[in-house]
Amino acid sequence: MRLETLAIHAGGEYDPATGAVTPPIHLATTFRHGPAAERIAGYEYQREGNPTNDRLRAAVAALEGAATAITCASGMAAITVLLESLRPGARILIPDDCYAGLRLLAVEFLPERGAQVVRLDMTDLPAVTAACQGGVDLIWVETPSNPMMKVSDIAALAELAHAHGALLVADNTFASPVLQQPLALGADIVMHSTTKYFGGHSDVLGGALAFAREDDFARAVAHRLHITGATLAPFSAWLTLRGCRSLPARMALHCANAKALAEFLTAQPQVEAVHYPGLASHPAHALAMRQMRQGGGMLSVQLKGGREAALGVAGALRIFTNATSLGGCESLVEHRASVEGPQPVTPQNLLRVSVGLEHIDDLIADFAQALKA
Ligand code: PLP
Question: Could you tell me the domains of the chain?
Fold first, then answer.
């Protein structure tokens, strides 16, 4: 089955009990069992598993081509349960440009477990190769990266990780499985903030991990999630499952709108740089087009005139809402350095843009007026 068909049918099967065409939501926290805790229908307690969550897990696994998947209360919960499942003292390589939450987790909390975290440019393969010489348990790649839209070579990093006995984990939030399937390129685990494109409507928080193999490590992560409790609530699972159905159709329009806006911005005199993998001017455009189907719905733009110019444009936009997050129907803009905490790493003149599903002429007209304001 092709991805568009899987997105609708994987986990979305009609309800055998009633024939309802769309999945029911099972809100029960506990499930009837026999006198000696014999399971009757396979479930025991919601934190461990419930039918609505299982449907979403099946959908995520099918879309990523995974052997198994788990769903968590947020993307950060997924990242945390995964990294805390590594041995104490593990050596972890993370990208210099990545979601700020991963960076903060790596700086503030992982060292408490004795983890050694090395931050480096994942597009610089000789640097990653050199970093592996000190031993490595896990390489984390986020491609395209947040917010600089760097594109890293998943297949090459997987080869490198495996040569050193390490796992390669890919945060596939920006691309979604519609545009990129890291497991097919050799990654071992895919991570998603399903809060973004999977949910698709800025109304549900969630995270997922999709595993290439249902092995001891995958089982250990699922067990840790069950015991530590950052489970996805059934209503959230249901909303996310609903998002899956339209994911391929939404991604097509996100990509078309983002590419047209990126092309428009590139031609504006107030613009210093546009970062979008779908543009031929992107330094890794050829790689992006090899490992992604299209350039995606995210871009970032650096304005001439520094922080003031960037804040001026962000403040003048009318259709793009100033807000964090991404992947919803509505277009958002964010001065990323302002939300990164006390030590921002993103350039002050950069705006991150989540290009929504509005008419492209309206989006371009909005930027045109904001750039002149
Ligand atoms: N990964 C990426 C690329 C993100 O953009 C985000 C959130 O913005 C996360 C992970 C964390 O996900 P959540 O906010 O669902 O915890």
Answer: 3-242 (3.40.640.10), 248-372 (3.90.1150.10)
